[in-house]
Fold these 2 entries.
Entry 1:
Amino acid sequence: MNISERISQISDSPTLAMGAKAREMKQAGLDVISMSIGEPDFPTPAHVKQAVKDAVDADMSHYGAIPGIIGLRRAAAKYMSSFVEQSGAEDTFAAEDIIVSVGAKQALCNAIETIVGDGDEVILPTPCWGSYAEMVKLAGGVPVIVHTTYDNDFLLTPAALEAAITPRTRLLVICSPNNPTGSVYSAEDIRTLAEILLRRPNVAVLADEIYNQICYSGTCATWASQTALLDRLVVVNGVSKVFAMTGYRIGWLACKNKEFIRACTRMQGQQITCATMVAQYAAQQALEGDLTCVREMTEAFRRRRELIVRLAKDIPGWKVREPKGTFYLFPDVTALFGKYAPADSNYTKKHNSSLINSADELCEYLLLDSLVVCVSGSAFGEPSCMRLSYACSQQQITEGLQRIHAAILRLK
Ligand code: PLP
C-alpha cells in the first residue's frame, strides 16, 4: 500500500517510544525506573471518577456538539479567564471562544492545521516538545527552529524572534511552562515578545499553557494577557497534566477570533465529530470542582523538584538548572561526552564500543546498565541535555538518581 509522502516524513514520538520501552522492560520482569514519560503518577481525583460513572448512567453516549458540550466550554472559558484576571487584564474568554478536543495534542494540531498552509513558516523556539515540528510538517508547513540557550534559561529573546520572522512566517508556537526545560516566561518576557509581534500582523501565536498550574513561583503569566494580540492568539490548555487525567484525552483551545473558531470547528467536524462525551463531562467536573487536589499535586511536585535538584547537583558532569514549572529536569550533560562505559557493561557489549559521545548514547547506557529510562535532549532539539520526568514517587526519584549517579561514576 502507498504511504503518503507527508506521513513518511513524520517521526515517531521519542518520549512515547521511551515510555513503551519502559513498559516492555517492566513486563519482562526488569526492575525499571521510568523517568521518561510526562504523566502524573497520581490517581484521577475521586469526584472526577464519580462524574464518569454518573455520565455513563445518564446515557451520555451519543454524539455531541463539534466544539464540545456547553458545560465544559463554559467551565473552560471561566478557568482560562481566571488566569487572564490574575494577570490584571480584562478581556476574558466566553464559551464560544473554546473548542474542546481529544487532548491538548489535538487542539495544537487543529490550530496548526487551521493556520498553516503549504510552505508557511512556523517559528519553534527549542528546546521544545517534539510534536510541534511534526504537526507543522503534517500541515505542509516549514518548522523554523530558533535555538535558545542554557545561559538565558532557554527563553526566546526578542532579538532572536525578530531575526527569525520572514514574509512567510505565519505562526510562533511557544510553551510556558516549558516541556522539557521547565522554564517559565514572566509577564514582562511575554510583553516584550508581544511588542515585536504587534509590528508583524501576519504572525499568529499559539501558546501552549498546558502546564500553567504547575508553576513553583505561584501564578504563571499567560499570553492571553496581551489584549492587543487577542485577535491572532490561540491558547491551549487541558486536564491531562494538572488533573492527572492523561488517559481521558480532553484538552481545548481558546481564541477570540471568530473566523478561526468557525474554520477550526469545521475541520474538527470532519475529523472526529466531537471528543468523547463522558470524558468531556468528567473534565467539566474537574474544572468546576474543588481545586484543592490540584494544589496538593503541585505541592507534591514541588517537594519532588527539591529532591531531584538536590540529588542531580551532586552528579559529576551534570549542569543543573532548577525548573520553574512542569515536572521535568533538563540537565546539560556535555561534560560527559567522550567518556567510556566499563568494558563489561551491557552498553559496551551491545555496541562493541564503550564510547559515549552524545546524550542519546548516555541515555542508552543508563537504560541498559542502570535500568533508568530518561529521554535524550535531542528529542527536543537540544542534544547537549537530557530530560528526566519527576512525575514519579520520591522513592523512585531517590533510587533513580542514585543509580544514575553510580553509573556515571563508573564512566572513565
Ligand atoms: N503540550 C505539551 C508541552 C506536552 O508536553 C504535552 C504532553 O506531553 C501535550 C501538549 C499534550 O497533552 P495531552 O495529553 O492533553 O494531549
Entry 2:
Amino acid sequence: MIKIVVIHGPNLNLLGLREPEVYGALNLQQINDRIQELARREGLEVRIHQSNSEGVIVDHIHAALEWADAIVINPAAYTHTSVAIRDAITAVRLPTVEVHMSNVHRREPFRHHSYVSPVVVGQVVGFGPESYTLGLLAAKRTVEEQRR
Ligand code: CA2
C-alpha cells in the first residue's frame, strides 16, 4: 500500500474561521476528511499533520523518511521564507508535491516565489481544498511510476 504524509503549515488550523473569500468555507477537519475519503477510495494510507512551527514541520518531514513513500505539503507562509523546509525536503529525497489552495501567482508579489518548488516534483495551486486531493493523486502517480 502506498503511504503518504500530508503536512499543513502555519495558520491553516484557522481555515473556515477567517478569510473564507480567499481560502473557502471548509475547516481543516473537513479538508482532512476529504483527503482520507479519497485515500480510502484510492487504497492509500495517509497520515496528516498540521503545525504552526517551522522546526516541527522539519521534524515531520524527517519522520516521513521512516514511514512514507511520498509527501504532500502546503508550507503556507513558510513557502516564501523557509530554507530549512526546502533543505529537509531535499535531505529526505522523498517525492514531494507542493500544494496551495489559493492561486499564489494571482496574489501579492511576495507570494510568487517559493523556496520549495525547485525541490519538489510539482505544484498544485489555486483549486481551493481540491488542491490537496489533486496533490494526493499526483503523489500516488509519482510513487507508482517510481515502482515500475
Ligand atoms: O494558498 C495557500 O494554500 C497558501 O499556502 C496559504 C498561506 C499563504 O501564506 C500562502 O501564500 C498561500 C496562508 C495560510 C493561512 O491560512 C489562513 C486560514 C484562515 C484564516 C487566515 C489564514
